[in-house]
Amino acid sequence: MPQERYEYITLIAEIMAIRKRGEKPLAYIHTYGCQQNVADSEKIKGMLHLAGFSFTEEPEDADFILFNTCAVREHAEDRVFGNVGALKNIKRRHPSVTIALCGCMMEEKGVTDRIRKSYPFVSLVFGTHSVAKFPQLLYNVLLHGNRIYDCDETDNTIYEDVPVLRDKSFKGWLSVMHGCDNFCSYCIVPYVRGRERSRSSDAIVAEAKAMIEAGYKEITLLGQNVNSYGKGLDEDVSFAQLLRRIDEIEGDYIIRFMTSHPKDCTHELIDTIATSKHISKHLHLPFQSGSSRILKAMNRRYDREKYLSIINYAKEKIPDVSLTSDVIVGFPGETYEDFCETVSLVREVGFTSLFTFIYSRRPGTPAAEMPDVVTEEEKGKWFRELLKVQEEIASVRCSKMVGDTERVLVEEYIEKKGLLSTRTSGNIIVEVPGDESLIGTFQNVKITEARNWILRGELI
Q: In CATH, which of 2.40.50.140, 3.30.1330.60, 2.40.110.10, 2.30.40.10 is domain 405-459?
């Protein structure tokens, strides 16, 4: 870890040894949005942990409160502002508490001005490019008591050696790149996370190896578009080549990755999955719309035929591949005929599951200026129609798995059901009777029952 960062962490520890309200300083971290935000929060937790902090699930008990925010959907922003407003009473009861906001929302124009004017009890605001500077920013807030805003989106440096405190001991996120160059017309991400920057393959492989040696059983590689990994690097390396290097590490583990963009999903990548030892036989490939006309308006840079050709190649090379996707319903200008093309694509592919969303307008994106004449009520009807179709597909797929034996990772114990929740390589949940001591281990399970989205089974 760079000496300067460590020095600031040490200074924070000295201040908090005096300002803490309990035996140890406590931090409350709440993360909104995607897995990349979770990974950023784990870095912040790593730095706080070195500064002597423990963590609490109760903001009332905390000496430091942080909301890591998401800007992808308007509803998420509304929730953040509502929850930040509720912190005013905590600050009144405990004046020494430090309240901070970070994440994608802080990179949006106008958000910091709103916080400055309407939320004076928030002392620290920083963006996605400033996570590595967090110790310096927090130290200056604690020392001087000033409100600090650091949302400089021009710093595109990849900072290595930032300490990480992961939320789980057997499942972990591993960022391979940051930012996005795609500029889909509905998406705010390139504006708040910046352009694509890839980490060096040596650094990624070293971190993956350290995680495996520490006992991690599932590693998920993260990026806004992992398929374009390698941009800007001095080395000539593709995402498929990176996967092969990680797959060569000895150990009992599984590799997942997200998110993939269809325009960059190559035969090389699919071939790598098919021949690997550790890579999940699961491909999450968002198609967003089944209409080529709407895909063009979305600036997705592929059409329906191109997407289906990728899917068909994946099915040919990986016969048991599990396919999942994202879908937007009600994009500006979408007609019911366009929507029906989405439904027909869903039927043709036979996805394991879908993440479905009604279009959410994001100011600052091209789609926000497009005419949108379909009512929210009508979009809701389309949305429910799509869910019903996918439920039928998932039910049939799950029923066909009854009697099969699957290798699963035991993830958690569901107390109200008295069952273990496990997950297959294909990312399907299987609930089984079993002891909590099995959490974090691989087990073989015989599928005994299908319940639409999930399966029931028994340990072998």
A: 2.40.50.140
